[in-house]
């Protein structure tokens, strides 16, 4: 069993979050420290530590999760100007919460390469 994280508390409604989308499989909420005018985190309700752990999940699960990220971005009105999806993983990726989360960043132009 993977570790409990702050996102489990958000899923359990033990701490508040500004939720923008929820269904049986995922929760999407505003990042508490936004790095763009729109900064949303999309997490699966199933506790999966990080991106590399998706290898242990079914294609159907992963496909559904990725499509939900696209659906949330669309519902936020970001398709026109575009957006960036980020999955930080592990030490070098500077992942700080070990419950997989897609960052949806939008509302401004992004630079490349990332820091
Ligand atoms: P990462 O560094 O990729 O693991 O991203 C974790 C993200 O979670 C950071 O952008 C944090 O600002 C965000 N975060 C941490 N705690 C909360 C919280 N309670 N509500 C919303 N976002 C949070």
Q: Give the strand tally.
A: 5
| Approximate strand percentage | 15-25%
CATH homologous superfamily descriptor: HIT-like
What are the segments in which pLDDT stays under 50 over at least 5 consecutive residues? none
Question: What is bound: which ligands?
Answer: adenosine monophosphate
Give the N-to-C terminal Cα separation: 32 Å
Could you state the order of secondary-structure elements as H and E?
HEEEHEE
Mean pLDDT: 97
Q: What would CATH call the class?
A: Alpha Beta
The strands making up the biggest β-sheet line up spatially as 1-2-3-5-4
Q: What characterizes the major β-sheet?
A: 5 strands, antiparallel
Describe the protein:
By secondary structure, the protein is an alpha+beta fold. The chain has one domain (6-106): HIT-like (HIT family, subunit A, 2-Layer Sandwich), CATH 3.30.428. Helix content is 20%, strand content 22%. It has two helices and five strands; from the N terminus they run αβββαββ. The protein has helices at 6-11, 59-75; strands at 19-22, 26-30, 38-44, 83-86, 102-106. A five-stranded antiparallel β-sheet has the order 1-2-3-5-4, covered by helices on one side. Strand 1 and strand 2 form a beta hairpin. The mean pLDDT is 97. The structure holds adenosine monophosphate. Adenosine monophosphate (AMP) is lined by residues 6, 17, 31-33, 41, 88, 94-97.
């Amino acid at each position: 069993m993977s570790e409990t994280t702050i996102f489990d508390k958000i899923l359990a409604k033990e701490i508040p979050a500004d939720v923008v989308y929820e269904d049986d499989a995922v929760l999407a909420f505003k990042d508490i420290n936004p790095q763009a005018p729109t900064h949303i985190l999309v997490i699966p309700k199933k506790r999966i530590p990080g991106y590399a752990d998706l290898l242990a999940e079914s294609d159907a699960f992963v496909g559904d999760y990725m499509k939900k990220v696209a659906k949330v971005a669309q519902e936020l009105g970001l398709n026109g100007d575009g957006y960036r999806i980020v999955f930080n993983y592990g030490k070098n990726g500077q992942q700080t919460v070990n419950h997989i989360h897609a960052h949806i960043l939008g509302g401004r132009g992004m630079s490349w390469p990332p820091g």
